[in-house]
Amino acid sequence: MTRQPSDPVRAAAAPRPATAPTAAPAPAPAPVLGLRDQRLIAALQCDGRLSAERAAEVLGENPRTVHRRWQVLTGDGTVKVFAQPVRPDSVGALLLRIKVLKGKLDALTAALAARPDIPFIDLSASGDEISAVAFTEPGSRDHLVFRQLPATPAVASVSAATVLHVFSEASDWRHDVLTAAERAALTPVRDTSVPPAAPGSAPDAVDADILAALRDDARTPAAAIAARTGHPASTVRRRLARLTSDGRLRTQVAVDPRRLGLHIDANVMMRVPPDHLDAVGRTLARHPAVHGAFATSGAANLHAAVWVRDLAALYRLISADLTGLGIAGVETVIVGQAVKRPGR
């Protein structure tokens, strides 16, 4: 009797009996949304619990139209607004690059996607590389990286870079279709009289219940949260205001960037001299195409994830926007498929 591999990653990559492939037509790409819908999505990026009345006032729309379009966009799955889970400060992240042998990509990707500690997975357009983000304890000898993946027959090589500093992440990205004044008017102003949450502080039981109720739908009304959690509606409303003011309630909008006209997804790895690293990272974090910028260990010590309209726009970003910043070298990997993203 043949003994099966003992861990899910190796089991997923184990040889299987050959089966005849079945041809299936590729789904037609979803159309690009109109500018009004794109602006309404960008408004939700500023405040996931934004009211239709406030959005209409700032954007010059009819409140009923705003409410109806949001219902359509969230109802058909085009847009999902969710609350980011509270992540302890002790949790770090690794950027993984996994070279995979032919014929093993799908099984290994599925095994990685099933892991809750891996929130991001991309497949390269070349079809032989998986890029992933894995949460880990800093300084720990991660079991996945040091044991499971290297021992998997499907894996040709693994590299892991530790995230040293986050300049921006996915929840910070804003679709560039609003004016600066509109964005400022739609973004909640933090109450400076409310002290920010202490780093790494855990929410109490009531706050934890409320945040859990918002995990899949951050637009859930206070009355519905109260009914679900058993806490009084007045308490829920008061706690929601406090969670927003002290920065513990952070919402994020999940949407396929191709619906926004951003058809090219790419990861750009750069080699930057130490005396330029912080300035370049901060500059990239402000770039409208960048939905993640991180200083990392390794030869390529700055990583940026970008969404752009087409290859010409990607070329301009690399050949024009990155020039004059002191960057010593650039490697670009175009994403063929975004397998796993927060909210998706």
Describe the structure.
By secondary structure, this protein is an alpha+beta fold. Among the domains are: about 35-85 and about 180-185, Arc Repressor Mutant, subunit A (Orthogonal Bundle), CATH 1.10.10; about 165-170 and about 260-340, Lrp/AsnC effector binding domain/regulation of amino acid metabolism (RAM) domain (Alpha-Beta Plaits, 2-Layer Sandwich). Helices cover about 35% and strands about 25% of the residues. The protein has helices spanning about 10-15, 35-45, 50-60, 65-75, 105-115, 145-150, 180-185, 205-215, 220-230, 235-245, 275-285, 310-320, and strands spanning about 80-85, 90-100, 120-125, 130-135, 155-170, 250-255, 265-270, 290-295, 300-310, 330-340. The strands form two sheets. It has an eight-stranded antiparallel beta barrel. It is globular. The model is unreliable at about 1-5 and about 15-25 (pLDDT under 50).
Core attributes:
344 residues; alpha+beta; two-stranded antiparallel sheet; disordered N terminus
